[in-house]
TrEMBL record:
Entry keyword Protease: no
This protein's name: DUF373 family protein
Domain of life: Archaea
Pfam families: DUF373
TM segment ranges: 156-174, 180-198, 219-238, 258-279, 300-318, 324-346
Flavoprotein as UniProt keyword: no
Keywords, alphabetical: Membrane, Transmembrane, Transmembrane helix
Taxonomic classification: Archaea, Methanobacteriati, Methanobacteriota, Stenosarchaea group, Halobacteria
């Protein structure tokens, strides 16, 4: 007896149609194939099922049966074990006296990894791999490229490395200060690389989500939108101030002096940006009714860190002595500790456990 086994290792049939497997018999396999095609016409397992039915109809010189067995999505080991168990069920449904031989039908090498498991249970006459024939024209090529660009996994695997490779040449030109004769070609290559890299990383989706979040924030009256813009501007000013402070240092520069100069020139602007953004976030939390006293720690932490970094940079630049550094380190630490304890006490005293589940108006009266 010839048993035609249609293999679906990742259980597309069960997951997409809800049909219990194994599926045994020509009519049952045809119904399963139609159900899978109705749910996902592009699934290659549809062709596997119909190929099994086609082989069943072609064999007329011996007794034949067709069945579909499935594995599990994810682990190959668990999937192979599940296929083996379903093959046992299929064999148990056949007449025990028959000399059963199997013909395996798959859609690729991944499903064929289960062949040793089936061979341990029944003799295998052969493996039939189903390959779908498609028209080799411009339309099919366009569809294939479109599918590749829309698939996140494929984009990350193929397009991201390709985009990085295209960026190598223009980066080389930038290093040579655009003095190379092929600079125009480098610019074009760089633009193409940035586009492909953005497509591979799904940057257009991130930009769309950001724009939607900003629009929603504007209509909802989010204070953080304003404070984030101000903070970004302060960060830019801080970067410029740090570079100017570095340029004002006498030559030569050591690594420590470079870092200290950048920090000394930028830290006050960075601290202002951190305090501004944190206060905006605290304001929005209060308006949403989810305010916690501990959220007020953020601006004090920023101020303490800024004071410590300013003292350290001033010490390494020779503008302050060791005593000033010790005082600022101690003061920054005490500021962080005092704010933490103070707001923890305020939260324990003024917050009720059910207050955070209420709106901006506070807990409801009983």
């Amino acid at each position: 007896m010839l048993l035609v086994l249609c293999i679906d290792l990742d259980d597309d049939l069960g997951r997409k149609t809800g049909i219990e497997t194994p599926v045994i018999g020509r009519d049952a396999v045809v119904d399963a194939a139609v159900a899978l095609a109705s749910n996902d016409p592009e699934d290659s397992d549809v062709n596997v099922l119909f190929e099994g039915v086609h082989i069943y109809d072609e064999v007329d010189d011996e007794e034949v049966e067709v069945a579909a067995v499935t594995g599990l999505e994810g682990s190959d080991v668990a999937a192979n074990r599940a296929v083996g168990e379903e093959v046992d069920t299929v064999l148990a449904s056949l007449a025990a006296s028959d000399d059963v031989r199997a013909l395996i039908v798959t859609d690729g090498a991944q499903d064929e990894s289960v062949v040793p498991v089936i061979r341990s249970r029944v003799r295998i006459d052969g493996v039939r791999r189903v390959v779908v024939r498609q028209a080799q024209n411009l339309e099919s090529m366009y569809y294939t490229i479109k599918q590749v660009l829309d698939d996140p996994e494929t984009r990350g695997t193929i397009l991201v490395p390709l985009g990085i490779l295209l960026l190598i040449y223009p980066l080389t030109i930038v290093v040579e200060l655009l003095g190379y004769p092929g600079s125009a070609l480098g610019v074009i290559s760089g633009l193409l690389g940035l586009y492909i890299l953005a497509r591979g990383l799904g940057a257009e989706e991130i930009l769309d989500e950001t724009a939607e979040r900003v629009t929603s924030g504007l209509y909802a009256g989010r204070v953080t939108i304003i404070t984030y813009v101000v903070a970004a501007a302060l960060l830019v000013i801080g970067g410029v101030s740090g570079v100017q402070r570095l340029d004002a240092q006498p030559e030569p520069h050591t690594v420590v002096e470079v870092l200290a100069s950048l920090v000394a020139g930028a830290i006050q602007w960075f601290a202002a940006a951190g305090i501004t953004s944190s206060l905006g976030r605290v304001t929005d939390e209060y308006l949403d009714g989810t305010f916690r006293w501990r959220y007020l720690n953020a601006p004090f932490y920023v101020l303490a860190i800024a004071a410590v970094l300013h003292a350290v940079s001033a010490f390494f630049l020779g503008n302050q002595d060791l005593e000033y550094l010790a005082v600022m380190l101690t003061g920054g630490t005490l500021l962080g500790l005092v704010s933490t304890l103070a707001f923890a006490v305020a939260e324990a005293r003024f917050d009720r456990p059910d207050q955070h589940n209420q709106g901006p108006g506070g807990p409801s009266s009983e």
